[in-house]
Design a protein that fits this description.
Distance between the termini: 48 Å
Helix content: over 70%
Shape: globular
Length: about 240
């Protein structure tokens, strides 16, 4: 299962490398059926690339916890690869819905700005302001609470459910807290067309570190302080 997830993530990164444009948007983010369809496809590829590496520990633990839990928890036959795939599919589907919502919301906001967002973020002032916004969310209690709930060990301890419906609901719960952790970074990616792939790689590394390092409670704060210092320096420049 872990090998399959890793191969899928590698394929998604390859596709993202050669076709990153639609994911990071344009100066205006046009609202039309075709643009939303293109965005949804590119966003799905990007989410698979960024989130699947962090999903491998979760899936392995998902299978292990289900097999070692008591009969009541394993109701519905216990964990299987099929139920793990359902969990992942539900998780990705929730991220796609969230992405379309972010796109539509960003499009409405950007249409009312005097300067295209990607051009503003291409300046030192704009990038500095954006990094400060990301930093403030990294340091916020909401970020810390979502991260505490979506770490594999704590999430499965609280939310593990057996059966097919359990896998579906776990995928939705995991996506809920994962979106809560990362939505500011994702909106930043959405409107920063000038450096989409570079930021995508950087944020993927941050997300992986937040989910898997033993000192995870300090990781978002450390990155938050780093973003705050970098953003403040750019604004002062």
């Amino acid at each position: 299962m872990g090998v399959g997830i890793g191969a899928t993530a590698l394929l998604a990164w390859t596709l993202a490398f050669f076709n990153i444009g639609p994911m990071v948007g344009s100066p205006t983010l046009p609202l039309s059926y075709s643009s939303l369809s293109l965005f949804a496809a590119a966003w799905t590829i990007s989410m698979v690339a960024m989130m699947f590496p962090t999903a491998v520990p979760m899936l392995l633990m998902f299978l292990h916890v289900g097999r070692s839990s008591n009969r009541e928890i394993r109701e519905g036959g216990g964990p299987t690869p099929g139920k793990a795939i359902l969990f992942v599919a539900t998780y990705v589907g929730a991220w796609v819905v969230a992405g379309v919502f972010f796109y539509a919301g960003s499009a409405l906001v950007l249409s009312r700005l005097p300067v295209p967002a990607n051009l503003f973020l291409g300046t030192t002032l704009g990038l500095g302001v954006a990094l400060i916004v990301v930093a403030l969310y990294q340091l916020s209690p909401l970020k810390g609470e979502c991260l505490a709930r979506c770490h594999p060990s704590s999430f499965l301890f609280r939310y593990y459910r057996g059966g097919i419906s359990g896998s579906l609901w776990m995928g939705l719960d995991y996506a809920k807290y994962c979106v809560g952790c990362c939505w500011v970074m994702m909106v930043f990616l959405l409107v920063s067309a000038s450096m989409g792939l570079a930021w995508m790689v950087a944020f993927s590394a941050i997300i992986f570190a937040e989910r898997n390092l033993p000192i995870r409670s300090w990781v978002p704060k450390a990155f938050g302080v780093g973003f705050l210092l970098a953003g403040t320096a750019l604004v002062l420049v």
